[in-house]
Every structure is written in C-alpha cells, then in structure tokens.
Amino acid sequence: MSPDLALLVLGALYALAGFGVMELAGLQLRSAVDVIKTLGLAYVVGLVATSMVLIALLSTGVAASIPVLLAVSITLGIGGGAVGRRLHGTREPAGSLGTSGSEGAPRTGGRGLELESAGVTIHRLELAAATALLIGLGVLLVSGLRWAKVQPLGASWDAWAMWLHKGHLLYAFGHIPTAFFTSKAYLYMHQNYPLLVPLVNAEWFHFAGFNVVTLHAQYWFIYCAELWALGYTASRRARPIVWAPLLCMLAVTPNLVFGQTSLYADIPMALFLLLAALWLGEWVGRADVQASAVAPLVIAILMLGAAANTKNEGMTGAIALIAGAWVVLLLARRRSVPLRRLALASVGFLAMVAPWQLWLAVHHVGGDIPIGKGIDPVYLIDHLNRLGPSASAFYHNAISSGWDGLVVIALVLLLVGLCVGRLRREASFFLVAAGLNVAAILWVYVISPINLTWWLATSANRTDDGFVLTIAAATFALCGQMLPAGSGGSGFAIRLRRRVAVRS
Amino acid sequence: MFVIKGLDDRSQFELQRPVWAAQPLSDREIDNSYGINIQFLAWARARMLAADGDQATFWFPDNSQDTAIYQWAMYQLAPARAIERPAGADWAVLYGPAAAAQHLDPEHWRLTSFGPGFAIARALR
Predict the structure, then answer these.
(1) DSSP, res A78
(2) What's the CA gap between A362 and A17, in Å, rounded?
(3) Which residues on B lie below 8 Å from A405 (Cβ)?
(4) A246: nearest CA in chain B?
C-alpha cells in the first residue's frame, strides 16, 4: 500500500474507533461541523483505544494482525457508538465550552449532560485573526508531510535500537516474540518498556511495508492529529484569540517538531500527557458542578493509559497527574460523587497498564531501576550526591531554548492562578502534578546504578518532556480563563456557549 | 519571536527535502553515523533468512565491544535472533577482524567469507 493510502486507511480506522469511544464517553456529535472539529481528537482517542486493546491481546498471546486491528476498530467504532447512544440520553455537545466555576449550571438530561447555551460574543476581527493563524498552521503542517515522507532515519539511536527494532519484531512475528524480550542478548533495548510505540510502528509496517523512511510521515500525521485534538480541547474553554496563538506557538516548538520526527517515544508520550492534563484539569476544575459529566475524565484516563503504555516516564507522569487530581479533590473536600468517579477512573487506568506489567512479571522481565532500594532511607542517603547534578540538568533542559520559554510562561500563569480564587483549584492541580512528576524523575536518577554523567548526557534533554508538556497544558487551561470573555463573559469566567455569535 | 524561530528551524527540513528525496531509499533507511559495514550485515541477513526464515538464530561474538556495532547488528539482522553462546546457534556472524579471527572448528562450522574481516559461518549438524 502506498504511504499516502496507508495514512488515510489507518487514519480512518483510528477515527472510526475514536468516534465510537467518544460517543460511549458521552461526547455528542450533532453536526458535520462537530465531526470536523473533533476529528483530530477522534483520531488520537481511536489510536489510543485500539492500542490499549491490542496491547492487552498481545499480552495474552493473541497476534496483532491487520484483521485483528480491523475487528477492534470496527467494534469500538460501531459498537461503542451504539452503546453510547443507548447509554446517554442527552449528552454533552461536542462543540460546547465547558463550565468553569459555578456559573451556568448545567441542565442534565438522561444520564448525559446538556449545557446551558450562553453567549460568548466573538468579534469578527478576532475570529478572522484566529482563522488566519490556524490556516497558516494548517499549511505548515500539511507541507510538513512532504519532507516527513522522505526523511532519512538519521542519527536516532534509540529509535532503531529500541522502538523500530521492537516494531519490526511485532510486525514480523505478529505476537510478542518472548525469546527476544527475555534474552540477555537484547537487554540494551529496554525489554520492559511498554509496547504502544512498537505497536504503532508495526501497524504502519503492516499497511505500508517495512519502510522506516515513510514511517516519519505517520508520526507527522499523528502530530497533526494531536495538535488538532489540542485545539479542540482548548477551544472548549477558551476563546479563539487565546488558544489559536498558543497552539501555533506550541506547534513550532523545536523540541516538539524534531522530537516527533526522530521516531523516539518521548514526544509522543509527552503529547499524551499534555492532552490528559488538559482534560483532567477541566474535569477537576468543574468536578463539583458537573459530577455526571464523565467525558473529560474518560478521555483523560485514556490519554494517561496511553502515556503509561508508551514509556516508563509516561507511567510516572500519569501517576503524578492522577495523584494531583486526588490531592486537589480531597483537599477541597469534594462531594463523594467526583471522588467515586475518580476512583473508578484510577481503576480504569490500572486496567490499561496491567496487561503489559503482568506479561513482564510472568516472564520475569525487569528493568534497570532498583525500585525496592529506592525507598530504603540508607540507600537514598548514600546516593543523595546524585540529586544536585540531576536537578541541575533537569532545570537547564526545561528552560532551554528548545522549549521556547514555555516553562517560564506556564509557571508565571500557575502562580497567578494560585492567587485567583476561581482558578486556584485547577492551578493547584497542575502544580501538584508537575511537582510530583519532577520528584519522580529526580528520584529515578538518584536511585539508579547507571553512571550519572553518561546518563544525564544521553537522557536529560528528553526526560523533562512529560513535565514540560504537563505544565504547557496549564498555559492553555489558565490563559483562556484569565482573559475576559468579551461582552458575554464576566470577570475571569468564560461562560458556556454552544453557538458563537459573530458580531459585526 | 518563538514562531519565527520555529519556522526557521522547520525551513531547514524544507531545504533538506530535495537532498533527501534524491538519495536512494536504501541509504535513507540506515543510521550510518557509526561507520558500520551495513552491506555485510545485509548480506549475512539475506543468507540466514533464506536458509532458516524468521526462526534463524545466530551467535555474534562481540569482540569489538562497540555498542553501536552490536546494537545496529541486532537491529539489522532481525528477525533473525541472537543467542549468547555458539552452541545451539544456526549461524555465527563474524563482524570485524577480531571476530573473523575467531577459531571455529571446521568440523562444526562451514565458513563463508564476505571480505577481509567479515564472514558468516553455518553450523553443521
């Protein structure tokens, strides 16, 4: 199959599955415009949902072949949609802005959610400026496919040593070739790392042949879908003149562009965390108002499962975000409904990471980080001299030019958010999650037996990716709420809308 | 400012595109930053897979201690599988002069040379 056709076929399968899962979660698509707006999110949700199912199947010995992918995508797409329509009476309209704070109490219908329609009036000039920015970004992204399709493998050690190698094995054998994942001859490829990226690679090879050059196009396509999904997610709570420039700025951030096309797993993992943080932040921010709205929580947990199934750093990043939600809700003494939902979501997360972890346990495949020793105070004190260099490397990479000052902007916004009552809960959530993420990464650097100088030199420019994009989510979440919503808004509140009134 | 910088970085890709497109696909599928003899590995892989399919196993005496060579060889020779000892391996892949100088009992191995310092040996059973 030609690379162009493979992009479209795989994209259609992911989007089909994604729309089904979104219906199941309660996100309603009322019109063709809704479908277009959520197409990127559907692609990402579908990619994630099919991958979770296929990883579970692989872990139980079932081959991840084209027929299995087709069956899973169609089942999720058609079955999920049908069950979703039956399950939810009136659901959350896909195009609506969510509520922030207690304004605009939702009207519930059935087990789903109907938001009040409130007017955020958007000036024609604002809409035109945002549209122009998005068109420009779209042109850049589409033209990017031209070079992605011919890009050489280049000097991407981890890409070929780990991710492409494992993807090739899944493609060649269909199932997990145990002998490769348990042999000391292949210790270097981090046999315990999760399977999402190798699976994505293998799916590409099934459709486009074993071609690592055109695989870059698939990664670029995924990047475009994730930006699209991010734009839609941000648009639920912020006005276009806020989220569109932020999206453009993020899209051309060097670390993202070059990281995504290096075929490493770090940026894909971090982008899952970004989307998860934004959806979970939205849910935490309004958990007391809309206890019945589960769609943001479901999508957040799916993204967290994807991050945890992409890299071990994704696992720590995901746990940090879930812990952040727990801390904030418990401290805010929320009612029991949001806590019950969060407990269920946490169980859902565990269910997504369990299959691969069980496979590793059954086959006695371990990692090179001595987790057990890491909680021994004597061992920790003995290795405390590793903390300073690790923290320094982390700090310098997080504020490096490769991130375009994203961290500084986000931290300033978070501090402002802490001072504003309406934003405090969500700002606290992002700060707690980001803090736990940093702590977990530094803890791993401290307890590891690996030579620290070498390890920092080869990894520190990537291990901060999850942290940076977690607080980048705060930029989208808080920025939108800090700016007045025009004549339809009041103060810091962005009010709900279902229709945008264009005022001439 | 950030956007302009990002666009500038991206334009490097755009300028590279015709250069990349003009290269043969086989050159673009490899990471040749380490001066690895990929022609030999391709030749060895083809012979192993032709004889034993994806069940082929090989022993790769890592005399060079060069991690780039070792890991790239594992990648390029897949789905043939490396095993740690010669006993039980279908093949020995002898990469580099040190490995090629390895003494293999001719009663148990049939040696085929690719060129100076590079050879494979088929286990005789």
Answers:
(1) I
(2) 30
(3) 2
(4) B3
Residue B19 sits at the chain A interface (C-beta within 8 Å)? no
Give residue B9's pLDDT.
59
Asked if this assembly's ipTM is beyond 0.85, the reply is yes
Chain A residues 299-328 with a CB less than 8 Å from chain B = none
Query: Rounded to 5 degrees, what are φ and ψ at B59?
Result: -110, 130
Contact A404 B20 (CB under 8 A): no
B72 interfaces chain A, CB cutoff of 8 Å: yes
Residue of A358, A330, A357 lying closest to A343 (CA atoms): A330
A294 contacts A399 by C-beta, under 8 angstroms: no
Nearest-CB residue to B28 (from A144, A172, A213): A213
Quick one: tokens of A276?
């998860």
- The C-alpha atoms of residue A287 and residue A99 are separated, in whole angstroms, by 10
The angle, 0 to 180 degrees and rounded to 10, between the axes of the packed helices A80-87 and A3-25 is 20
| Per-residue tokens: A340 | 């019950």
Residues of B in contact with A204 (CB under 8 A): none
DSSP A490: B
> Rounded to an integer, what distance in angstroms lies between the CA atom of residue A317 and that of residue A340?
22
Q: Residue for token digits 């040190």? A: B98
Burial string for A207-235 (b: 16+ CB within 10 Å, else e) reads: bbebbbbbbbbbbbbbbbbbbbbbbbbbb
Mutation test of the interface with chain B: which of A146, A170, A190, A252, choosing the one with the most B Cβ atoms within 10 A?
A252
- Nearest CB neighbour to A161, from listed B6, B75, B84: B75
pLDDT in tens, A352-366: 999 999 999 999 998
Cα B90 from Cα A183, distance rounded (Å): 17
What burial class does residue B9 get, using C-beta atoms within 10 Å of its C-beta: 0-12 exposed, 13-18 middle, 19+ buried?
A: middle
Cα radius of gyration rounded to whole Å, chain A: 22
The predicted model gives A67-71 an average pLDDT of 95
For residue B10, how many other CB atoms are within 10 A of its CB?
A: 19
**Range list of H helices, A363-451:** 377-382, 387-398, 406-419, 421-447
Omega into A152 within 30° of 0, i.e. cis?
A: no
Tell me the three state secondary structure of residue A273: helix
**What secondary structure does DSSP assign to A101-162, as a single string?**
TTSSPPBP-TTS-BPPP---EEEHHHHHHHHHHHHHHHHHHHHHHHHHTT----S-HHIIII
Over residues A491-503, the pLDDT tens digits come to 333 333 333 343 3
Question: Quick one: A385 exposed, middle or buried, by C-beta within 10 A (0-12, 13-18, 19+)?
Answer: exposed
The model's pLDDT over A180-229, given as tens digits with 9 standing for 90+, comes to: 999 989 999 999 999 999 999 999 999 999 988 899 999 999 999 999 99
